[in-house]
Structure formats: structure tokens, C-alpha cells
Q: What sequence folds into this?
């Protein structure tokens, strides 16, 4: 056994004091985001209606390389960070691989995922601006949980519109949010105009993310002192998530380890973008080389089969448009897809880095993802979220390749969260009732044909 400990912790004093904005090191920047009404690049004024002023500034800032993390946010981070970087000795042993596998574990907080890193930042700026509260949507519930924790810390009102089917199927997620003081409303509800309209049109509907977004936006814009917040996709979210990559890099540097390969799962791209940012920065500055791999579900393959084009970020078409790899905002993954990462598009920063060849992407089928998840749980102990398990799958595949070639690669992957609320999906897998679904080209073409006609 080598002298690398199982868990590589940083001291509190070694935690990052500034977020890293990889856009500052990109010669070719992500394309500007557009106002959905005028299709012109958004101004700070446009964005400040939707987001808090400082978050709007962060969204538009593609030159500052570092942005200070306010003291209040760093104090909150101290309660659950630095998160451990774990050497997966037991997994290596199981695979009999010469590769060295490391994972950065973001599930060691009550919300169970990395989403808290941005939730606390967004709540802080809302409080600082003197707002009363924020509204949001949640599907599976990780984002809503993280936001309710962050809002209770800063004594902000938190209103979560939760897709009705999840509200009913995931009562424990709902109760966690309510325990932290959030008001959780099944969507479509009778509380908003759009909710009442959808309920009238489709009686008994179990809702969708697009509908929940429309309700959350209406709730924010119809109440004085409220803003709408999003937990992924936006460049500000990626910025906040850079804390993952900065800590990972600092911990590796502390032990003189050079990563060869960095792997992350990609839904809207926030954890992946945050994990890889400091490494991508070194590639962009010509200082180092890394192999970076984004992993997405074969049932929702925006990077590997989508189009790089301007599209709406939300099904309700109220948020700004951005240029990104997308399947079209009308794309809905097959109902049998259980593993999260169902967003139709991708962060514009991740999209541009991918387009520039800074990273590659791979898609994996869900049964193979759950197979990897169970192998990981049985040897490393942690019950991984299905989303995170996409990265586990590819880390295992790569470690097995090393076994054939004899290479001692250092493989680092992001373990974004725990899967305690995903036991229905695990049950399906354990009962042998899980199947794979890969959309046909014709299906994808249908939603791609509906992309907005914007040059870019
Ligand atoms: C939300 C979530 C993801 C995907 O979101 P990204 O923005 O792509 O990071 C991945 N893992 C977990 C555990 C999540 O909750």
C-alpha cells in the first residue's frame, strides 16, 4: 500500500477563498445569452429582474478569473467542507487494476449532493439584497432540499414547486424540505394562473418540470421582493461549484499527485464544470494536459447527440436563451429513465469547452450505471446517487482498460451525492425490471427541428 491515505482532507485554512471563473481563461468565450423577448444579448438590467444583482453580474462576467467567496458563505461551507477526496483502494482491489482511483465526495451534507454549494451562495446574495424570499422548481428534489437548507440559514422564505408525481412518490424528500421551513407545493397547483390553466386543460395531470418552472417564475414575478433561482446550467452556478475542483486540485497537489483523467457526470453541467474548471484552466493556459470525460445518460444524450445551437433553458421559454449542446427544450426523456440527468441542454461553458476539444463525452445506459453503482456501494460503502453513478461507470471502465495496458493512471471522478431517496430505481434494478432506452435519430430530430431560429 502506498503512503496516500484513504481520505485526503484539507485543513480549513487550505480551503479556497475565491471561486475560479474558467471563462476568464477562455480565449473564445461562450456565446452571449439572449433576452427571450428581443433575442438581443441580455444586459445587466434585463438579468437583474430575474436574478439578484450580484448573481446577474457573475452570470455576465467572462473576464474575472477569481471572484472572492464572501466570508458568510465560507463560514457555511466550513460546516460540511472541505469535502473528502477519497482514494478508492477497495474498488482498485476489486477491479485488480494498476490504476489509482480517487473520488471527490459531495454527498456528506443533509441535502445529499453538491447542489448546496450554489444554493448557499444564491441565498446569501438574495438576503444581502434585502429580498424576502426565492422561488424554484424541483423534480427529484435535490435542488429543492439544498435551497431550503440555504434559505433557513439566512432566514429567507423558500417556495418550492415540486412536480406532482415526485411530490407523491418522494414524500420523504418533501418532508426534509418542510423540516427546513420551505413551502412545498405540488405542481401544477391551483395557486398560480398557469397552474390553474394546466389543471383545467389536463385534469389529473401529474405535472412536468417545465410546468413547475412556469409556476415558480410566476410566483417570483407576482410577489414583491422575490426572485426565481436555478440549481444548474447557469454560469453563476458553475462558478460556485468551482469550489469542488479547487479543493480537489489543492488536495492532489498536497500529495504530489498529478491527475491523468478527470471524469464527471453531466446533467446541466454544474458539478462537472465545477470539478474540471481549475484543470481546464491549466489546459487553456498551456500549462498541463488532462483527459477530461463528461458522462451522460444514453437516454438524454445532449453532448454526444445534440446540436450546438441557441435554445431555451426552460420548457416554459421564460429564461434567457443560451448557445449550448441541446436536444431541444421540448425533449422529454423516456419515462423508464430512472437515473436523473434529464435536462435537455448543457451549461454554455461546458458546451464551449467541449466544442473546443478540451473534453470528450460519453453516454452510458442505465442498467450498466446501476451495475457500477452496486459494485461501488458494496466495496466502498457509500450508496451513490444514480446521477453520480454515471461517472462511476466510466471510472470503472477506464480502470479496467488500465488493467489490460498495465498503465498506472491517476483517475479522478466526482461522486456528486448519495442515493437514499432513489430506492425505487434501485428496487427496479434489483428486481430485474430496469431496461435501457436509447432514443432514435428520428425522435431526436423531432425536438431538434423545433429549436428557435437564432443565428449563432
Ligand atoms: C443535480 C445532480 C446532478 C446533475 O446536475 P449537474 O448540474 O449536471 O451537476 C448530479 N448528481 C447529483 C447527485 C445531483 O443531485
A:
Amino acid at each position: 500500500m502506498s503512503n496516500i491515505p484513504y481520505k485526503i482532507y484539507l485543513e480549513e485554512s487550505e480551503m479556497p477563498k475565491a471561486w475560479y471563473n474558467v471563462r476568464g481563461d477562455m480565449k473564445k468565450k461562450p456565446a452571449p445569452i439572449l433576452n427571450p423577448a428581443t433575442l438581443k444579448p441580455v444586459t445587466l438590467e434585463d438579468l437583474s429582474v430575474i436574478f439578484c444583482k450580484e448573481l446577474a453580474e457573475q452570470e455576465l462576467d467572462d473576464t474575472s478569473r477569481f471572484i472572492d467567496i464572501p466570508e458568510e458563505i465560507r463560514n457555511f461551507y466550513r460546516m460540511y467542507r472541505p469535502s473528502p477526496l477519497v482514494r478508492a483502494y477497495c474498488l482498485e482491489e476489486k477491479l485488480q487494476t494498476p490504476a489509482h482511483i480517487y473520488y471527490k465526495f459531495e454527498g456528506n451534507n443533509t441535502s445529499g449532493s453538491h447542489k448546496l454549494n450554489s444554493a448557499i451562495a444564491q441565498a446569501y446574495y438574495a438576503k444581502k439584497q434585502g429580498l424576502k424570499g426565492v422561488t424554484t422548481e424541483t423534480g427529484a428534489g435535490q435542488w429543492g432540499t439544498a435551497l431550503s437548507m440555504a434559505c433557513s440559514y439566512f432566514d429567507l422564505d423558500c417556495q418550492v414547486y415540486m412536480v406532482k408525481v415526485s411530490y407523491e412518490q418522494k414524500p420523504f424528500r418533501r418532508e426534509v424540505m418542510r423540516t427546513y421551513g420551505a413551502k412545498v407545493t405540488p405542481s401544477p397547483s391551483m395557486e398560480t394562473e398557469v397552474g390553474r390553466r394546466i389543471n383545467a386543460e389536463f385534469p389529473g395531470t401529474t405535472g412536468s418540470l417545465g410546468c413547475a418552472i412556469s409556476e415558480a417564475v410566476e410566483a417570483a414575478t407576482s410577489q414583491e421582493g422575490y426572485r426565481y433561482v436555478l440549481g444548474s446550467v447557469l454560469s453563476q452556478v458553475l462558478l460556485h461549484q468551482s469550489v469542488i475542483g479547487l479543493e480537489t486540485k489543492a488536495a492532489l497537489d498536497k500529495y504530489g499527485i498529478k491527475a491523468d483523467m478527470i471524469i464527471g457526470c453531466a446533467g446541466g453541467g454544474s458539478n462537472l464544470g465545477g470539478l474540471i474548471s481549475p484543470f481546464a484552466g491549466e489546459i487553456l493556459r498551456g500549462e498541463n494536459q488532462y483527459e477530461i470525460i463528461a458522462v451522460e445518460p444514453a437516454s438524454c444524450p445532449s453532448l454526444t447527440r445534440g446540436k450546438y445551437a441557441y435554445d431555451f433553458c426552460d420548457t416554459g421559454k421564460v429564461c434567457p436563451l443560451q448557445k449550448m449542446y441541446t436536444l431541444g427544450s421540448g425533449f422529454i426523456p423516456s419515462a423508464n429513465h430512472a437515473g436523473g440527468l434529464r435536462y435537455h441542454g448543457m451549461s454554455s461553458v461546458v458546451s464551449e469547452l467541449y466544442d473546443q476539444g478540451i473534453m470528450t463525452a460519453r453516454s452510458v445506459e442505465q442498467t450498466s450505471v446501476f451495475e457500477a453503482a452496486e459494485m461501488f456501494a458494496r466495496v466502498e460503502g457509500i450508496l451513490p446517487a444514480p446521477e453520480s453513478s454515471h461517472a462511476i461507470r466510466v471510472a470503472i471502465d477506464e480502470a479496467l482498460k488500465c488493467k489490460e495496458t498495465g498503465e498506472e493512471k491517476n483517475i479522478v471522478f466526482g461522486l456528486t451525492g448519495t442515493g437514499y431517496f432513489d430506492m425505487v430505481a434501485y428496487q427496479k434494478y434489483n428486481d430485474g425490471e430496469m431496461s435501457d432506452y436509447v432514443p432514435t435519430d428520428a425522435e431526436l430530430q423531432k425536438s431538434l427541428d423545433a429549436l428557435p431560429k437564432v443565428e449563432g
The first helix runs from residue 44 to 50. The mean pLDDT is 94.
